[in-house]
Amino acid sequence: MAIEVRIPTILRTYTNNEKAVTGTGDTLADLFADLETRHAGIRARLVDGEQLRRFVNVYLNDEDVRFLEGISTKLADGDSVTILPAVAGGSGLMSGSAGWV
Q: Known InterPro entries for this protein (predicted)?
């Protein structure tokens, strides 16, 4: 079973600068364990204990896995997993101000 995993720029140091890698697993947790065997250190950047890290978003075929079964989400051959760092905050520019707050 082959699953494509799209890797964000910030994590590409773990994948030898590859934008996408392939892995296997029946669940997202299994996939992350499989990736760890070839890309040491990547799992710890994605998972804290048995749940996704707070500032990591993972999508299975464009569906946010937090609204599915988290890292227990089932996978199938040909699925696509996208890992994205969460973006927070804003510009800090207040209306009518002369600069950054």
A: Beta-grasp_dom_sf, Mopterin_synth/thiamin_S_b, Sulfur_Carrier/Prot_Modifier, ThiS/MoaD-like
- pTM score: 0.83
Alpha carbons 9 and 77: distance in angstroms, whole number? 25
Alpha helices of 1-101 — where are they, by DSSP H? 28-38, 42-46
Domains in the chain, number: 1
Q: Which residues contact 38 (CB under 8 A, 6 or more apart)?
A: 21, 23
CATH number assigned to the domain comprising residue 75? 3.10.20.30
Q: Is residue 93 part of a domain?
A: no
pLDDT in tens, 55-81: 999 999 999 999 999 999 999 999 999
For 66, the token pair is 């937090």
Helix, strand or coil, per DSSP, at residue 25? coil
